[in-house]
Each structure stands twice: as structure tokens, then as C-alpha cells.
Amino acid sequence: MRAAVLIPVHNRREITLRCLRVLRAAELPAEFGVIVVDDGSTDGTAEAILAEFPDVILVRGDGHLFWTGGIVAGMRHALAEGAAFLFWLNDDCRPDADALPLMLDFLEQNPRAICGASCFAEGGDVPVQTAFRQRKAVTASERVTEVDGLSGFCVGLPATICAEIGFPDERRLPHYGADGIYTLLAKRRHYRVVLLRDARVTLLDKISVSSLRGTMCVSELRWAAFVRQTFFRRKSAFFLRGQFWYHAYKYGFLFGSILFLVKVCGWAWTMAFFWCRRSASAQAV
User: Fold this and answer.
1) What is the pTM of this model?
2) DSSP symbol at 220
3) CA distance linking residue 197 with residue 147, whole number of Å
4) Residue 68 CB: number of other CB atoms within 10 A?
5) d(CA 75, CA 92)
6) Quick count: other Cβ atoms within 10 Å of Cβ 175?
7) Which one, out of 42, 64, 91, 120, has a CA that is 20 to 30 A from the CA of 268?
8) Residues 69-109 pLDDT 10s
9) How many CA atoms lie within 13 A of 29 on its CB side?
10) Are 74 and 140 in contact (CB under 8 A)?
11) Distance (Å, whole) CA 276 – CA 236
12) CA 83 vs CA 135, 148, 189: distances in Å
């Protein structure tokens, strides 16, 4: 296995199977292998993969890996298999048939580079912002677009990077943020981080990280349960420990800590204002 496609999954059997069918239909070169990390799915995902895709390597988790732990488990397994290139791929992504070979060709020609595919919304030609430059989200404006960091939808990187900067931080950034921070740290180690315009991927799910206010509007939880679910659940986009370390990695410990505290104060104000209005409306009724 020269290039390993790593797919972390959990309880999305049909989405996962559809992703694997797309890869099979693409007829990838024999140098590509596929590793699925099933993080304790209870919907029969693992059994369905083994039945339909006997050539896929299945790594099992216990339900506590989340995205980052799943990716790290896949990277470690790929290194043990001797892979020279690693590809992160979310199971809600549908790569064009030539996307992964194009990315591999770029990596082979650029030894100190990380590349991301250009992502598009399903049913159209609308690009989705899956990279950032400084504090601005960007899409591929040129054939090769230089960026600072990438979201982990479809990303290719050399296996040698693991010996230099290690693995994504599964302890501090268990689900959100580890992809962008890892690629940003690589950029700071003088890796070239780019989006490839011609390597196209369709996203089957919408990117839907809601604002805190939006999350509160659709939640029916009581105040204490909402706080636990939103700020202390590792899979939440607002997970406090993850948010702290994301800011610390991105902006430096001191300035990042200040920005994190400012954000927390803003969240506290938003929650207080929202709950006061909700209570007033309930009393008026």
C-alpha cells in the first residue's frame, strides 16, 4: 500500500457504504488502499463493510475516538502497512474519479506539501469554504491556491510528516479543530499547504456548525442540561477545552487565552440574554 485513504466513521452505515461505492467505481490505482476506522458503530456499519468490501481494512474503535482519534488510529495503521502517503476522507464526501490520483501526483512532485481537494455542495457547482488563510475562509481561486490550514474533508499528506510533527491532537481537540490546527502547524514547519482546484469532491452533507444562538433556538433542553451538552461534550463544536486549545494553538498561548476568554464572555452574555427573553415570554403567556 503506497497511499492509504483513511475514513473515520460512526453510525452512518448508508453514508459510509455510499462513500466506499464511489471509491470502488472510481477504479483507483492499485497503489491505493482504503482503511475505515469504525468507532464503535451500533448500526451494523462494520458488518456491512466486511460483507460488501472485503478488500477494505477495518479498524475498530470503542466509541470514544471521535474524528481525531479515528484519523490518528487510521494514520498509525497506515504507517504500519508501509504507506508513503495518507489521505483523510470523510464518509460524506464523494471524490471525482481523478481527485485522489491528482492529489497523489501533486504530493509526489512536492515532497513538503499538504493538499486539499476543492469541495462543492451537492447538486450544483457552488464551492464550499474548506480552507483558511489567516482568519478568512477561502476556496480554490487558482489551480493551486496557497492557504494556511485545511478542513479534513479530503486532505492528502506525506507519511513522513508524522515523524516530524506527530499526529493530530486527539486529547485536546477530539472532534473539531484538529484538522485545521494540524495543517497550520505543518505550515509553520515550512510545509506548503494548498487547495487543488482540479481535484474535486462533492459534499453530501451541508457544513452546519451553528452559532450558539442558533443552537439555543432549536434546543429544548433545560439550562443546566444545555450547558453540559454544549460546552462539556467532546463532540460539540463549543466544547470548552477544545475551544481553548484551538485558540492557543492558532494564536499563541497568551493571546489565544485572551481571545478564548473574550469568546466565553460573549457566549455567557448571549445565553443570559436569550434565557431572560425566553423566561419573559413564558411568563407573558
Assistant:
1) 0.93
2) -
3) 13
4) 27
5) 19
6) 19
7) 64
8) 999 999 999 999 999 999 999 999 999 999 999 999 999 99
9) 13
10) no
11) 24
12) 33, 25, 22
